[in-house]
Amino acid sequence: MEQPAATAPVSLPFAESTPLGLLGLSIGCAALVPIALGHSLTPAGLRTAAMFCLLFGAGGQLLAGLMALANKNLLGGTLFTTFSFNWVMNWWALAGMAEGKLPDPTIVLAVDIAFLVIFLVLTYAFGFYSKLLFAFLADIDLLYLGRILKEVTHLPAMGWLVTGCTIALIGISLWIAFAILVNPAAGRQVFAMPGPIFTPKKPDTV
Protein backbone atom coordinates (compact mmCIF):
# COMPACT_ATOMS: atom_id res chain seq x y z
CA MET A 1 0.00 0.00 0.00
CA GLU A 2 1.38 3.39 -0.95
CA GLN A 3 2.02 6.06 1.68
CA PRO A 4 -0.22 9.11 1.60
CA ALA A 5 1.32 12.06 -0.18
CA ALA A 6 1.40 14.06 3.07
CA THR A 7 3.73 11.53 4.72
CA ALA A 8 6.02 10.93 1.75
CA PRO A 9 9.62 12.02 2.30
CA VAL A 10 10.46 15.45 0.96
CA SER A 11 12.99 15.39 -1.88
CA LEU A 12 15.55 18.18 -1.60
CA PRO A 13 17.08 19.60 -4.80
CA PHE A 14 20.66 19.25 -3.54
CA ALA A 15 22.71 17.03 -1.27
CA GLU A 16 23.87 18.37 2.10
CA SER A 17 26.15 21.30 1.22
CA THR A 18 27.67 22.01 4.64
CA PRO A 19 30.86 19.94 4.03
CA LEU A 20 31.54 21.89 0.83
CA GLY A 21 31.30 25.20 2.67
CA LEU A 22 33.43 24.01 5.59
CA LEU A 23 36.13 22.51 3.40
CA GLY A 24 36.30 25.75 1.42
CA LEU A 25 36.52 27.69 4.68
CA SER A 26 39.35 25.51 6.00
CA ILE A 27 41.38 25.86 2.79
CA GLY A 28 40.88 29.63 2.74
CA CYS A 29 41.99 29.86 6.38
CA ALA A 30 45.01 27.64 5.68
CA ALA A 31 46.13 30.09 2.98
CA LEU A 32 46.02 32.92 5.54
CA VAL A 33 48.02 31.18 8.27
CA PRO A 34 51.54 31.64 6.76
CA ILE A 35 50.81 35.35 6.26
CA ALA A 36 49.53 35.68 9.84
CA LEU A 37 52.78 34.06 11.03
CA GLY A 38 54.84 36.58 9.08
CA HIS A 39 55.77 34.33 6.16
CA SER A 40 55.02 34.63 2.41
CA LEU A 41 54.60 38.41 2.66
CA THR A 42 55.98 38.82 -0.86
CA PRO A 43 53.71 39.94 -3.73
CA ALA A 44 53.72 36.36 -5.02
CA GLY A 45 52.70 35.00 -1.61
CA LEU A 46 49.92 37.55 -1.20
CA ARG A 47 48.56 36.91 -4.70
CA THR A 48 48.64 33.14 -4.11
CA ALA A 49 46.73 33.44 -0.84
CA ALA A 50 44.28 35.82 -2.52
CA MET A 51 43.36 33.23 -5.15
CA PHE A 52 42.74 30.53 -2.54
CA CYS A 53 40.52 32.98 -0.65
CA LEU A 54 38.58 33.78 -3.82
CA LEU A 55 38.13 30.22 -5.11
CA PHE A 56 37.69 28.20 -1.92
CA GLY A 57 36.75 30.74 0.74
CA ALA A 58 34.38 32.78 -1.42
CA GLY A 59 33.42 30.39 -4.22
CA GLY A 60 33.03 27.27 -2.09
CA GLN A 61 30.97 29.00 0.59
CA LEU A 62 28.79 30.89 -1.89
CA LEU A 63 27.94 27.66 -3.68
CA ALA A 64 27.30 25.87 -0.38
CA GLY A 65 25.15 28.74 0.88
CA LEU A 66 22.98 28.92 -2.23
CA MET A 67 22.49 25.15 -2.19
CA ALA A 68 21.55 25.27 1.49
CA LEU A 69 19.01 28.02 0.85
CA ALA A 70 17.52 25.97 -1.99
CA ASN A 71 17.24 23.08 0.49
CA LYS A 72 15.28 25.38 2.86
CA ASN A 73 18.22 25.51 5.29
CA LEU A 74 17.86 29.16 6.25
CA LEU A 75 20.45 29.25 9.04
CA GLY A 76 23.27 27.47 7.24
CA GLY A 77 22.51 29.12 3.92
CA THR A 78 22.53 32.59 5.46
CA LEU A 79 25.82 31.95 7.26
CA PHE A 80 27.68 30.56 4.25
CA THR A 81 26.34 33.07 1.75
CA THR A 82 27.04 36.09 3.95
CA PHE A 83 30.51 34.87 4.88
CA SER A 84 31.37 34.15 1.23
CA PHE A 85 31.27 37.86 0.40
CA ASN A 86 33.69 38.55 3.24
CA TRP A 87 36.11 36.14 1.54
CA VAL A 88 35.80 38.19 -1.63
CA MET A 89 36.95 41.15 0.48
CA ASN A 90 39.89 39.06 1.73
CA TRP A 91 40.83 38.37 -1.88
CA TRP A 92 40.56 42.06 -2.75
CA ALA A 93 42.61 43.12 0.29
CA LEU A 94 45.40 40.61 -0.34
CA ALA A 95 45.53 41.38 -4.06
CA GLY A 96 45.75 45.08 -3.21
CA MET A 97 48.49 44.48 -0.62
CA ALA A 98 50.52 42.69 -3.30
CA GLU A 99 50.51 46.01 -5.16
CA GLY A 100 51.21 48.10 -2.06
CA LYS A 101 47.59 49.20 -1.60
CA LEU A 102 46.10 48.78 1.88
CA PRO A 103 42.38 48.77 2.79
CA ASP A 104 41.12 51.62 4.98
CA PRO A 105 41.44 50.41 8.61
CA THR A 106 38.55 52.50 9.95
CA ILE A 107 36.05 51.00 7.53
CA VAL A 108 37.41 47.49 8.18
CA LEU A 109 37.02 48.06 11.93
CA ALA A 110 33.40 49.18 11.54
CA VAL A 111 32.58 46.11 9.43
CA ASP A 112 34.36 43.80 11.89
CA ILE A 113 32.18 45.16 14.70
CA ALA A 114 29.07 44.50 12.61
CA PHE A 115 30.30 40.97 11.86
CA LEU A 116 30.91 40.32 15.56
CA VAL A 117 27.32 41.26 16.39
CA ILE A 118 26.04 39.03 13.57
CA PHE A 119 28.12 36.04 14.61
CA LEU A 120 27.23 36.39 18.29
CA VAL A 121 23.55 36.01 17.43
CA LEU A 122 24.24 33.13 15.02
CA THR A 123 26.31 31.41 17.72
CA TYR A 124 23.25 31.31 19.94
CA ALA A 125 21.10 29.99 17.07
CA PHE A 126 23.54 27.19 16.17
CA GLY A 127 23.62 26.13 19.82
CA PHE A 128 20.17 24.61 19.25
CA TYR A 129 21.72 22.16 16.76
CA SER A 130 25.12 21.03 18.03
CA LYS A 131 27.72 21.82 20.69
CA LEU A 132 30.38 21.55 17.98
CA LEU A 133 28.61 24.06 15.75
CA PHE A 134 28.33 26.34 18.79
CA ALA A 135 32.10 26.01 19.32
CA PHE A 136 32.65 26.70 15.62
CA LEU A 137 30.75 30.00 15.82
CA ALA A 138 32.25 30.88 19.22
CA ASP A 139 35.72 30.56 17.66
CA ILE A 140 34.67 32.98 14.91
CA ASP A 141 33.38 35.36 17.60
CA LEU A 142 36.73 35.27 19.37
CA LEU A 143 38.55 35.75 16.07
CA TYR A 144 36.61 38.91 15.27
CA LEU A 145 36.99 40.18 18.82
CA GLY A 146 40.74 39.73 18.41
CA ARG A 147 40.68 41.62 15.11
CA ILE A 148 38.83 44.51 16.72
CA LEU A 149 41.09 44.65 19.78
CA LYS A 150 44.18 44.41 17.56
CA GLU A 151 43.06 47.47 15.60
CA VAL A 152 42.08 49.42 18.72
CA THR A 153 44.95 48.50 21.07
CA HIS A 154 47.72 47.59 18.56
CA LEU A 155 48.81 44.86 20.98
CA PRO A 156 50.84 42.07 19.30
CA ALA A 157 49.06 39.51 21.51
CA MET A 158 45.82 40.21 19.66
CA GLY A 159 47.48 39.20 16.42
CA TRP A 160 48.45 35.88 17.98
CA LEU A 161 44.87 35.46 19.20
CA VAL A 162 43.56 35.92 15.65
CA THR A 163 46.13 33.44 14.31
CA GLY A 164 45.25 30.87 16.96
CA CYS A 165 41.54 31.21 16.27
CA THR A 166 42.19 30.83 12.53
CA ILE A 167 44.10 27.59 13.08
CA ALA A 168 41.39 26.33 15.46
CA LEU A 169 38.77 27.21 12.85
CA ILE A 170 40.53 24.97 10.33
CA GLY A 171 40.45 22.06 12.76
CA ILE A 172 36.80 22.49 13.79
CA SER A 173 35.67 22.99 10.17
CA LEU A 174 37.43 19.83 9.01
CA TRP A 175 36.04 17.79 11.92
CA ILE A 176 32.43 18.81 11.23
CA ALA A 177 32.84 18.27 7.47
CA PHE A 178 34.37 14.82 8.02
CA ALA A 179 31.60 13.91 10.48
CA ILE A 180 28.92 14.71 7.91
CA LEU A 181 30.77 12.94 5.10
CA VAL A 182 32.24 9.88 6.83
CA ASN A 183 29.80 8.96 9.62
CA PRO A 184 26.86 8.04 7.31
CA ALA A 185 29.19 5.98 5.09
CA ALA A 186 30.68 4.15 8.09
CA GLY A 187 27.34 3.67 9.81
CA ARG A 188 28.83 4.90 13.08
CA GLN A 189 30.33 8.02 14.64
CA VAL A 190 33.93 7.94 13.46
CA PHE A 191 33.98 11.69 14.05
CA ALA A 192 31.90 12.52 17.12
CA MET A 193 29.16 15.09 16.59
CA PRO A 194 27.65 16.04 19.97
CA GLY A 195 24.05 17.12 20.32
CA PRO A 196 22.64 20.59 20.96
CA ILE A 197 23.68 22.80 23.85
CA PHE A 198 20.26 24.49 24.07
CA THR A 199 16.78 22.98 23.99
CA PRO A 200 14.09 24.85 22.08
CA LYS A 201 10.95 25.80 23.96
CA LYS A 202 8.06 23.45 23.36
CA PRO A 203 4.94 25.05 21.94
CA ASP A 204 2.20 25.74 24.46
CA THR A 205 -0.60 23.22 24.39
CA VAL A 206 -4.24 24.29 24.59
Topology:
Layout: H1 18-36, H2 43-70, H3 74-98, H4 105-126, H5 131-153, H6 156-186
Helix pairs in contact: 1-2, 1-6, 2-3, 4-5, 5-6
Keywords:
mainly alpha; 206 residues; disordered N terminus
Question: How many beta-strand elements?
Answer: 0
Structural class: mainly alpha
Q: What is the average per-residue confidence, as pLDDT, rounded to a whole number?
A: 93
**H/E element sequence:** HHHHHH
Report, as a whole number of angstroms, the end-to-end distance.
35 Å
Domain count: the total is: 1
Beta fraction? under 5%
| Helix fraction by DSSP (H/I, runs of at least 4) | over 70%
Identify low-pLDDT runs. 1-6
From the spread of the alpha carbons, the general shape counts as globular
**Total helical segments:** 6
Rounded to the nearest angstrom, the radius of gyration is 19 Å
Largest sheet: none
What does this entry look like structurally?
- By secondary structure, this protein is mostly helical.
- It has one domain.
- It is built from 6 helices and no strands.
- Helix 1 runs antiparallel to helix 6, helix 2 packs antiparallel against helix 3 and helix 4 runs antiparallel to helix 5.
- 28% of the residues are buried.
In short:
This protein has helices at 18-36, 43-70, 74-98, 105-126, 131-153, 156-186.
